[in-house]
Design a protein that fits this description.
The structure is a single chain. The protein has 272 residues and is mostly helical. It has one domain. The protein contains eight helices and two strands. A two-stranded antiparallel ribbon has the order 1-2. The chain is globular, with a radius of gyration of 19 Å.
């Protein structure tokens, strides 16, 4: 049983890598839309990978000794971001996005497997903190998707000014990407707001002390302000294009620094 659990991360990573390579190879021909049967097969294979990936994401959080750090956070963030895409693809047309999503997921999951296991987190056994944790990870997932959409918007903008061939020619229209970006940002912002509120309330209820303004709190608040300003600018000033892309990537970077970046320093570099 232990051997199977040891091999599973490598098998899942190889699955992402194989699917990403197949997608890139099958999309090399410009202006040639893949048949519906191939799209359904790709979607089914991605769903199978998500099922295999799920134990990797949740096993560290259950049992008598839950643990969580940069390794587990990056692996779960990858799983949630791919799940959001996979689910949304049932509702709206997202053809072209998986060409970028799968390579990024492959790299991020591979990076997580190279990191040491995280630190013990006994507070995750409390239902209140489990709810806070779930909301926080969903917020991270939506903002990860938003960051991916921002990168795609930059590529689509380049495609408009410098028409090319192959993968770039198959990206969704820029306006469609922009609408999807702000819808994703709005959902992520609501979840991030709930994360900050529940973190404050539950900290006082469980630990009998107010939230301390450490690096994680400050980076999270800074990210919240960036996304709030961007959504405000969209509604009142009509911000779009490169402004939206730059602000989205800045906010997501701050979120990564808030937890994954700091835990990487403590777990991998300082081994604390």
């Amino acid at each position: 049983m232990t051997q199977h659990l040891t091999l599973l991360p490598l098998l899942v990573w190889l699955g992402y890598l194989a699917l990403a390579c197949w997608l890139w190879a099958s999309r090399r021909q410009p202006f040639q839309a893949p048949p519906a049967t191939r799209l359904k097969l790709e979607h089914s294979l991605l769903g199978l990978l998500l099922l295999l990936h799920a134990p990797l994401a949740f096993t560290p959080l259950i049992g008598l000794a839950p643990h969580f750090g940069a390794r587990e956070a990056l692996g779960m963030l990858t799983w949630i971001a791919v799940l959001i895409y996979w689910t949304a693809a049932f509702l709206i047309k997202l053809e072209g996005l998986q060409v970028i999503l799968l390579p990024v997921a492959t790299v991020s999951l591979g990076a997580s497997l190279l990191m040491p296991a995280g630190h013990p987190t006994p507070w995750l056994s409390a239902p209140l903190m489990q709810a806070h944790f779930a909301i926080a990870m969903l917020a991270y997932g939506f903002f990860a998707v938003a960051a991916g959409l921002a990168v795609l918007m930059r590529l689509a903008d380049r495609q408009l000014h410098q028409p090319g061939r192959g993968l770039l020619s198959q990206l969704p229209p820029l306006l469609a990407l922009e609408r999807l970006l702000f819808s994703t940002l709005a959902l992520g912002f609501v979840l991030l707001t709930a994360t900050l509120v529940t973190g404050t309330v539950f900290s006082e209820a469980l630990f009998h002390k107010a939230v301390t303004f450490n690096h994680k709190t400050l980076f999270s608040l800074a990210a919240w302000l960036v996304f709030a300003a961007l959504l405000w600018g969209r509604q009142t000033r009509g911000w779009r294009g490169r402004i939206a892309v730059n602000w989205t990537l800045t906010g997501f970077t701050l979120l990564l620094l808030a937890y994954i970046g700091s835990r990487f320093v403590l777990d991998a570099l300082l081994q604390h």
